[in-house]
Amino acid sequence: MQGGCQGCKSESHQFDIAMAFQPIVDVETGHVFAFEALVRGGNGEGAAEMLAGVTSENRYAFDQRCRVAAIEGAVAAGILDTGAKLSINFLPNAVYSPAACIQLTLKTARETGLPIDRLIFEFTENEEMIDTDHVKNIVETYRMMGFGTAIDDFGAGHAGLGLLAKFQTNYIKLDMELVRGIEASLPRRMIVEGVIRIAHSLGIVIIAEGIETIAEYDTLRAMGIRYIQGYLLARPGFECLPGVNLPGRSFAAVA
């Protein structure tokens, strides 16, 4: 743990990080449920370019810097004027101790006035879980501290249902490959329906991401999914909170 903390202090100056924000929409009300913070470079460079520079030596510093940039950027963009939560991606393999490594996040939230119960931490299933017991400890610690947690890209990657059997997050974000063209794919619909049933039984909220067409949107709505994210509704806004467009309706970013 000490090595990680020293790494944060020595490497943090390497990262010129900004954030883009994409709405997760409660389509029953038209309000933004949360904004996901998406890492960008200071000049708008994409996430892939930023992540390409992350190594085992600087992963902790990168993760910490992203958390700070997400909170400060969202507050500067006006999230306190909305009822929306802020969803922050984090790297489980960068967390040495959940209680210790969260301190900078808590400090930033206090300084900016963002209530911690409006924070969601999501991790991608695509990141290989070196120690699933450690990830379980992170999720349980965050839950006790009042944060929401989410598995991103569910249905792709290393763990799938096995990860969900080990611990449960507040939210599951369906991988976009599961919902791409779902209106024309019986296997995709059956898989998603199965995940919905499991999540409902476990008290987990489903979020569908990567929605690009009205047909995908209509199919997911018919399946009972309430929270949707994707280009059809809003593209990420660089250092701003974009408005939302639902089929037949338009809403401002303020919830």
In helices, the fraction of residues equals 25-40%
For the biggest β-sheet, the strand order reads 1-2-3-4-5-6-7-8
**Helix and strand composition category:** alpha/beta
Q: From the alpha carbons, calculate the radius of gyration and give it in angstroms.
A: 18 Å
The multimeric state of the shown protein is single chain
CA-based shape: globular
The helix/strand series, from N terminus to C terminus, equals: HEEHHEHHEHEHEHHEHEEEE
Number of strands: 11
Mind summarizing the main beta sheet? 8 strands, mixed, barrel
Unreliable runs: 6-12
Strand composition percent = 15-25%
Protein architecture, described:
With 255 residues, this protein is of the alpha/beta class. It is built from ten helices and eleven strands. The strands form two sheets. The chain has an eight-stranded mixed barrel. Strand 10 and strand 11 (249-251) form a beta hairpin. The longest helix is centred in the N-terminal third of the chain and has 19 residues, at 59-77. The radius of gyration is 18 Å and the shape is globular.
